[in-house]
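In the current project phase, the collection of sequences with tokenised folds has grown. One resulting record follows, to show the layout:
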Amino acid sequence: MFKPKKKAEITENKKEPYNLKYLGGWLMAKMAFGGAARLRSNTEEVNRLNVFPVPDGDTGDNMRMTIESGIAAIEDLDSDDLAEVMKVFSHGMLLGARGNSGVILSQFFSGTAKGFEGTDKADPSTLGRALEMGVKQAYNSVMTPTEGTILTVAREAVEYAVSSITPQSTIRSFFSDLAKEMHESLKRTPESLAVLKEAGVVDSGGAGLLYIIEGFNNVLNGEEVSRESLQIQAPAKAVSVRMDFDSESRMEYGYCTELMIQLMKYKTDVDAFSVGPLREYLAGIGNSIVAFKTDSLVKVHVHTFEPEKVLEYCRQFGEFVSVKIENMSIQHTGLADHDHDHDDEEAEPKQYGVVSVSNGSGIESLFRELGADEIVEGGQTRNPSTNDFLDAFRKINAKTIFVFPNNSNILMAASQAAELYDRSSVIVIPSKSIGTGYAALSVADFSDPDPEAIKKGMIDAMSSVVSAYLSPTVRDALINGINIKKGDIIGVIEKSIVLASPDCREAAGSLAEKLVKDNGKTMLTVFIGKDTDDDEVSDVKNEIEEKCPGCEIYYIDGGQEVYPYLFLAE
């Protein structure tokens, strides 16, 4: 069962334990925990609510990891102050936000947290006003808000719950009204969004939000949530290492020490805390120092022979959120250890840096050859978080950093990270596919002193290319008048399904032909995926070349997951 270190004093009706007039921080934390648990148990159902019948549904995973990042931030927070709990919770969600649905969810709770500023507890009216601010911020986070999505579900539910407030309302009745209308609004989403109706599904983001609010209600109705129902800390990714460090070795390189610490009010003046003295201390025992403060969180990186001193010093200001200490004398196999190649903070920053999202070893190598300093691993079904981008930015000592999300579902997280980062100017290039990112980075002229001119050149390059992909299907569907059977291979140009075939070779040839001829292109680049075999690739190449005579065709072993073939026509 989720419990804070000290149970805060709250007024309870013994028969209806959470039928309260006010919502405090302790109860809000418990409700958040319940919401995360409810979403986790229904993640796969949310994932399956995918408009396209392809194996790339990840809305449930993105929303789950987003809210669990918020839970991790408040798990050990001992406070019944609603404003403080919501601030820490929402900030954790902002850093952990993944995918468009996760970013929108984090913005909704961030706006709500702002509505609670200066409020240690909230009655239903105050709660309603805060949620209205959450809806407004969520809408503002999207360049072109679309109705029939999570935005609509949130807005209509909040409007209904606020309009239903009476002098007799309680926190439980408010959230009951919220969930009731959210359920009805979700059912209506296909009427607002034609693609949902055609696919026979409701909006996946709205469904994820409903599960979270249902989890809130479960707690308000007395349900206890076990800690074991959530695995908040993801298991560490397996790393292949060659042990060059044994009983006969000497310590030559020290330890790469990274930590995040939550500043605590009972230990320090959080608002007045400065990282200056911290950096000075770290400089006395190490190098490659990075230390910065975001709200009440401090992130530290240092190379040192005395990591215990780093922990001891930092602990006097707060409590650890995460700690990682690695022996730098142990050589990792594979690529050079980019994770620890931090430029010394004192070094003169270079003019430009590049961060690119990549999925596949071949694509990663290609983007590095084109000038990417840092690669953020991700792609369809594996969307990186806002914090993943922030970590990549911190490793680059540059005045201006260009970011290539290379996926439409990663663009918002990259943009959110750019807004949060203040040590460099960050420019997000709106590359919505590997192909468009490749086209943009290929023409980048980093000798130009004007970053806006570089950006314009890259965006112009993207506007002149057309991208497409092949994907296996996971269910029957009728989309754009195309009858799709489970197991078919579909061809998608930009965001439109244009063909379906049971034969991958035929689908590849037909898609390439449409892509080139219908768009007047003469050059085609094909990225070959991880799960293809040599015989199939040979057949696909022959079919493409037969269907596109006179076209200049290049093949790249991309190694990407999910999609066996990606296409770029120029």
